[in-house]
Design brief:
152 residues, mainly alpha, three-stranded mixed sheet, 9% strand
């Protein structure tokens, strides 16, 4: 059987909602981004949202290529390229869930397949409020506890 490679433009919310469950293959390197790289991604996203707010028009931000191997009948998607960005975005959403308790349920739903919110939720937060103290992410899990908070 011939295999084909198809490329599709996707919104961030489309990648994080229902039909995708990320699986990091064993051959991938561990998470290695530094604070500098994560900050650059966050600053770029924040700037894109600010530009959209000022212009009053919707704009798109190119996140970069993310390569997934996915079977249409299986929600699992093996991450071939883009692991660092996907992992960083997942951590960003976990931090947003913590600093925005009123949106915690929606963010948790978004991260775990219901897809109710998008990155636009960050427009209501000052970007400095989203930066955790340097060791916070190391001490909190990504999955929420029974009350929707990041676990320890």
């Amino acid at each position: 059987m011939d295999k084909t490679l198809e490329a599709h433009d996707k919104l961030i919310r489309e990648i994080f909602e229902g039909s995708y469950q990320f699986e990091i293959p064993d051959y991938q390197r561990p998470y290695a981004w530094t604070t500098e790289q994560a900050t650059e991604l966050f600053d770029d996203l924040y700037s894109a949202m600010q530009d959209a707010r000022v212009s009053g028009a919707s704009s798109q931000y190119f996140l970069g290529s993310i390569v997934l191997i996915k079977n249409d009948r299986d929600p699992k998607s093996s991450v071939v390229d883009g692991q660092q960005r996907l992992s960083t975005l997942t951590m960003l959403f976990a931090v947003l869930r913590t600093v925005m308790p009123d949106a915690a349920d929606d963010i948790t739903d978004f991260l775990y397949k219901k897809g109710k919110v998008s990155l636009a939720v960050a427009q209501s937060v000052d970007r400095r409020d989203c930066r955790p103290p340097p060791r916070t992410l190391a001490h909190h899990g990504i999955r929420p506890d029974s009350k929707g908070r990041a676990g320890r």
